[in-house]
Amino acid sequence: MTGAARVAGKVGIKEVARQAGVSVGTVSNVINNPDLVSDETRIRVRAAIERLGYVRSETARQLRAGQSRIVAMLVLDLANPFFAEVAKGAERALRDVGLGVMVCNSAGSPSEEADYLALFAEQRVRGVLVTPADGSGRTVETLRARGIPFVLVDRSLPEDQGCSVSVDDVLGGDMAVRHLIAAGHRRIAYVGGPMHLAQVRDRFTGGRNAVREAGLPDDVLTPLDSDRLDVAAGRDAGARLLGLADRPTAVFCANDLLALGVLQALFAAGVRVPHDIALVGYDDIEFAAAAAVPLTSVRQPAARIGRTAAELLLAETDETGPDAHAHAHRRIVLQPELVVRDSSRA
Amino acid sequence: MTGAARVAGKVGIKEVARQAGVSVGTVSNVINNPDLVSDETRIRVRAAIERLGYVRSETARQLRAGQSRIVAMLVLDLANPFFAEVAKGAERALRDVGLGVMVCNSAGSPSEEADYLALFAEQRVRGVLVTPADGSGRTVETLRARGIPFVLVDRSLPEDQGCSVSVDDVLGGDMAVRHLIAAGHRRIAYVGGPMHLAQVRDRFTGGRNAVREAGLPDDVLTPLDSDRLDVAAGRDAGARLLGLADRPTAVFCANDLLALGVLQALFAAGVRVPHDIALVGYDDIEFAAAAAVPLTSVRQPAARIGRTAAELLLAETDETGPDAHAHAHRRIVLQPELVVRDSSRA
DNA sequence: ACCTGAAATTGAAACGTTTCAGGCCGCTCG
DNA sequence: CGAGCGGCCTGAAACGTTTCAATTTCAGGT
Q: How far off is chain A from B60, nearest CA to CA, in Å?
């Protein structure tokens, strides 16, 4: 046992100073600028710190510094492996420079998102990585109004408004539907979550582009709404799909969770994939390849998105900090990639 | 636009007080005890707050209060849907009482875990929900030494040492292996992650119990080590499995991620599940049911674990706070449930 | 003996809150 | 009319740091 005679938070720098027979300023220097302190004193103070189990109060430190060492990350759905992967990428990059990461879950709800943004502002977080749950841009407005550095994740933004790292969702949707059309499908359903999410909208737009470029009428791709973006919602959508008058021959889902849910529903009803209905998902989460019928999906470089976003945020805070010389926001758009598997093969 | 003329953090309670023509104490009361302030003053102060875009500094507040309004949650693997679900359960319960949740990922590494525990101590978090990455109990020791309230998640602890919410892993392992033995299997491999994790050890112990109770020799269940607990590690293990001299007829995995990886490896090698090799996983994550061969798995009530842990933590902090009357730690052990699917059916 | 400069240390201000003892005012009660 | 009271408000202390100007100490140069 090394010590810890007192309870954390009970012993402050003052008590350490008293026991070591020095002033508080010196103790602070031992911790933050050891070079300024003589060897003898340094050793004595370190001993006192050890003996008392002193832990510096980051809270007090932050108060003085005006900003915290924590970056907040707000994602649409922690239970979605895609976001978990993005978070992991960001976390690694931020930990490397000694910043803590607070991962939070808006669950796609604008009101939960607003709650969290308020919390972040009160906490004076260093910055925020956020995938907006709100299509209206109110998220960005709120952050800018409060002067909190931020980077949009998986959603793009004009460069004069802020940094963003996204994947070209319109292109992704285009690739998916183009693939289905090439396979001969002419009745395709788009199973999408709430349309106020940009991702959901853009992927549909991309799909419609593909339809038009093929010289086909718009109604070749018809949306089938879904209120959430999880497996259960996918099962619901699958069931509704089967009740449709003109049953589609292919389904494009806004993400893999939905696609896996649809797959389960189709399977339960004895509908064969891809023979009766072809299926394409989005995100290419690890489980897509392991599904009952391996899932064709649009792959996004999840970890890279997270890492890149973290780097942009660091650049922004560094440059904004010292001598506020205008920071040039960057808008990074990564490319998706279609991974064809059994679920859409003839 | 409602205001926000200044940058967040720039305007404090003092400036608000000046503009509203009152003292700082009154502004504080408007925010925290509105009843103590006259209507007229309250309105005037509120207007000033709005106009200036004032946001209370939680940092300063915490400094005064001595503790923060944030609870930390440290899990083994955020990318594992089981933990994501646990986190979700805890988050909901804590948000309901106005506490923020900081979810962090130790990735099963004791050193990352130690880093995070140090961060939490400096942040003076209200409490910690943790699944230890370190089998030795050093995690618990560290937390207790620092006086940080904690609840162990998915890991049990004697009641005199602290609160814990776990699922009976020994029983779960027993159920899984008993099921395989009943189906006639006599060569069973246990694919487990690093043995320093209690979960991995206990599930194996349970399996061995089942073997013994069936009056069979211990080597019916042989461990096949794996350094991590993810899908890729499962694929590795699956490949090694196939090279074994006496190829087992069944495989029990320490979690579903491993099982899905094994499944992929077996499938790639043309080995049929369950015909050639039966497979049982653990956790019953949502994707287990949607796998190429629906996976038999030991289900754990994930969300409930999270919620229960959060409640215990709240009880502990509430009771410890006011007048330190000895808090009775609780040790809650939930029951697992075997869900039989195709991967282990004859 | 005196001055200089570097090295080591001190002491106090400042960060933005909350809390609390007290002050002031206008009423009501005796 | 004075005392007492309740409602409203003020001003300052305290929380635990960091930072910085000021002070002390000491060795070395003249």
A: 6
